[in-house]
Amino acid sequence: MKLTLSSVYRPHSFPKFLYCSSFGTLGRRFCSSALSSSPTCVKPQVPLFLRPPIYSTKLCDLKKWHDWAKGVSLSIGSTFVQSDNGADSNMLCRELKWLMEDAVEDHSLGMEDDDRVKMRIDIEELYSLWTQRVQERRPFQYVVGCEHWRDLVLSVEEGVLIPRPETELVVDFVSHVVSENEDLRSGVWADLGTGSGALAIGICGVLGSEGGRVIATDLSPVAVAVATYNVQRYSLQDKIDLREGSWFEPLKDMEGKLAGLVSNPPYIPSEDISGLQAEVGRHEPRLALDGGIEGMDALHHLCDGAALMLKPGGFFAFETNGEQQCCALVDYIKSRSGRSFYNLEIRADFAGIKRFVIGFHQ
Amino acid sequence: MAHKILFRPTFVLTLTLHKTPISVSYHPFRRSQQQPFSFLSTHPIPLPPTARTTSNTHTHLWCSNFSTTTTVEGSEKCYLYLTDEDLMRQCEMDTFKSSGPGGQHRNKRESAVRLKHLPTGIIAQASEDRSQHKNRASALNRLRSIIALKVRKTVDLDPYSPPRELLQILPPKSSIRGSDCGPQIGPNNPRFALGMQALLDLVFAVEGSVSEAAKYLGLSTGALSRLILSDDSLRKEVNDLRASKGMKPLK
Asked: Which chain A positions have a beta carbon within 8 Å of B103's beta carbon?
């Protein structure tokens, strides 16, 4: 088709540069509109707690479901804990409580067994959701379509990493750094491999309305779609720029200009993937977990890029697999980039595991 | 000035507060006699300014393993004046997880937070929220509240000069309260804890006598009683002190 077109158009006597540029623009427009209607364009799911309460069920039926689900949860005992350090009965019962909170609309009317309860989901679907949770070990966050992270409630779904509590600390690091540096507060920050957009949205919050903006990238179209949804839910579309692509690739225009760079990249060594907790290994995207043979492929790439992309005085924070990777990464930075960075530090998470490497660009 | 911590080793204080209008709790089945879903009353709540607004969830605040009348010297003794960040630095935070590598390896919603304030040994805990970040903020607010209730400073009564924070929680009719104190701060204001601490310091200094304390504050005994009764935890502290001195409780 392209060949035919060009053979048709080429004989025309348009100056060649004009022809090229106009066709180029047209071509790009055509492509992007084609993309948005193609299957690669993902429509993010609405989290359960945001769905309209259009279903209703009898209270006794809801109780019946709850008793069944609780029984299923109790029957698990510590089976999952023993097999792969998964959830125990107590944890499942807590999740069940949260599922109820999200599924049932708030009301305080008198409640007899025959009274109807307004729900955001059909009661039959609740049965299948809890079966998925327990039998298939589907992560609870995918079941309800959201994760509570810092003061945010973020939409998540299959194909997007569920943000972890550990990662909340990265926002605290940024908050601390910008509290004493107005230049960094008003600069452009980047969150690479943003997933649900958690770090980008969290950082945008600590930069404040007068502060700079955030560019968030992700290779996965699903992640970009979900992050876009979350950014819109917090009305931050003017402050957060989402770009699809691998790591620094969509950031070519920002060389030497970034005030800060953060990432929670895949860092699990490939050979550990098969032994992961079922919720993680079977359901979360391998793209967001597998960091290559030693787990440090992405971390190395990020450190190389940081030297190029950060402006003088710019800050970076990366999450790692633990102490070993933290130390290896600091060594790597020192040997590769020599004096490009200063104040390199390893920080522990709340469980006391050395988890983050932070530092500044010269 | 020295801080005296006036409670027993491994003393456990469990606040089981009743349903209050403040807690935006979730009671879809409230009227049901059996309370089949009584657990649903633990809906995530907004950050409570202090422990007394923490709803009917199981709020365990306890203090342990330190001797009575510990004296803490040094500049860090005015804990309540510290910023959240600095107060947090004095705490050991425990997130109830120890096993495994954590991070991306793990999917467990263990968002509960337990803070141990190292200088005093006071422990505050929060677990009602699904986000660890919010639980940390709740626990820190609870910590402030319990520090106010439990950490005592000796007060110089001759002459007595109440701190500004105390003046701010007094009703306007107090004769020592200047007009520059602004409107009266009530129990729902996070700064109430500071005034409450100073008030308890005074009540302890006069050994539980409300009429005596009222004189120092330029108030009638009745007016000070009403102020003490306006806050459940404050009333409890004062009444516990009075009981230990063989005095009748305020009602």
From this structure: 164, 166, 267, 319-322, 349, 353, 355
DSSP per position, A292-308: -SSS-HHHHHHHHHHHH
What gap in Å lies between CA A262 and CA A303, rounded to an integer? Answer: 11
Instruction: Note the helical H segments in A2-88.
Output: 2-9, 16-37, 59-76, 79-84
Give the Å distances, CA to CA, from A67 to A96, A181, B34, B179: 10, 54, 14, 60
The residue of A49, A56, A84, A97 whose CB has the most chain B CBs within 10 angstroms, and thus the best one to mutate to test that interface, is A97
CB-CB contact of A147 with A163 (8 Å): yes
Write out pLDDT tens, residues A208-260.
999 999 999 999 999 999 999 999 999 999 999 999 999 999 999 999 999 99
Domains contained in chain A, CATH given: 48-144 (no CATH), 148-361 (3.40.50.150)
CA distance readout (Å), A279 to A139, A321, A354, B113, B151: 5, 18, 24, 23, 45
Give CA–CA dist A121/A54, Å, rounded. 8
Q: Which residue in chain B has the smallest CA separation from A323?
A: B101
ipTM of the complex: 0.79
Do B92 and B115 contact (CB within 8 A), yes or no?
yes
pTM of the model: 0.70
Q: Does residue A55 belong to the interface with chain B, where contact is any CB pair within 8 Å?
A: no
Distance CA A47, CA A50 (A): 6
b/e A47-75 (16+ beta carbons within 10 angstroms → b): bbbebeeebebebebbbebbeebbebbee
